[in-house]
Specification:
alpha+beta; Cyclin A, domain 1; Arc Repressor Mutant, subunit A; four-stranded mixed sheet; three-stranded antiparallel sheet; DSBA oxidoreductase; Thioredoxin-like_sf
């Protein structure tokens, strides 16, 4: 058992959950092998025509919510740094009004291969936020499952099963029981069962403070100098990393230093670069 368990109450298409990815990369590198990450599906949008988030200007239903959501996402991306692709975004419609299918897909993946479920969750986030795919479409979900190595036929069967639906309903009950009413939220628990719930988007310093409090100051982050070897190890687990994730994972002095460091690795073909708007992803080179 790890020293700390972080349970992330989330939804696969939540923009601030996407923005938490760099924070999690920083936690992975600065607290190596000390934290276990778990995910509970919270179901952000049951039906877009009955959904309203007036604080973020989202209330137009299937007829106009897509444009409102893109506007909100671009504003959020300015704060958390993760890439967003607004061109062609059309996630919600009368045919596909909900994010529940994406949540159920994660539970189906856990049934098929628990070791690949988190990879599918990540892939759904990428496809939704940076590729403008309609990830509530079962055909798209099956394609994404195949991308992360899940057997398409087995996954499709699980996706359609009552067991996956029931597992998602259990996650919804767990979310309600925990008192979670905003995504993301994080239940941080120590080995003795003590815990604290953080609501909303949090930075690395917020987690550091909570972890220190729960461990009486015994768990402190290590220094992590930029290292191609460590980056490759991170890419073994997360094959496609956004620039912001790399920046947060290591102790760079600035984003400019990060760009220069990555450019050297890209120029020597140790990494491949994939542009997304003003930012980019990197993956292992040939």
């Amino acid at each position: 058992m790890k020293n700390i368990i972080i349970t992330n109450f989330t939804d696969p298409v939540c923009i601030w959950c996407w923005g938490t990815e760099p924070v999690f990369r920083a936690l992975e590198t600065h607290y190596p092998d000390q934290i276990e990450f778990r995910y509970v599906m919270g179901g952000l949008v049951d039906d877009i025509d009955n959904f309203a988030d007036p604080g973020n200007g989202i209330d137009a239903g299937s007829d106009g919510a897509n444009a409102q959501i893109v506007s909100h996402w671009l504003e959020a991306a300015q704060q958390h740094g993760m890439p967003v692709k607004p061109e062609g975004f059309h996630l919600f419609s009368k045919e596909f009004p909900s994010t529940y299918p994406q949540n159920i897909a994660y539970k189906a993946a856990q049934m098929v291969d628990p070791l690949k479920a988190d990879a599918l969750l990540r892939r759904i986030r990428e496809a939704t936020l940076t590729e403008a795919k309609v990830t509530s479409d079962p055909d798209v979900l099956i394609e994404l499952a195949s991308d992360v190595g899940l057997d398409s036929a087995v996954f499709m069967s699980a996706l359609k099963s009552s067991e996956a639906q029931q597992a998602f309903q259990e996650d919804l009950r767990q979310t309600q029981k925990a008192g979670v009413d905003v995504f993301p939220s994080f239940l941080i628990r120590n080995a003795e069962g003590g815990d604290v719930l953080l609501r909303g988007y949090m930075g690395f310093a917020d987690f550091q403070q909570a972890i220190s409090s729960l461990t009486d100051g015994s768990m402190i982050p290590t220094e992590v100098a930029p290292s191609a070897t460590l980056l490759y190890t991170l890419l073994d687990k997360h094959p496609r990393l956004a620039f912001e994730e790399v920046y947060r994972a290591f102790d760079f002095t600035s984003r400019e230093q990060t760009h220069r460091w990555l450019k050297d690795l890209i120029d020597t073909r140790l990494l491949e670069k994939e542009a997304v708007g003003p930012s980019y992803f990197i993956r292992k080179g040939m």
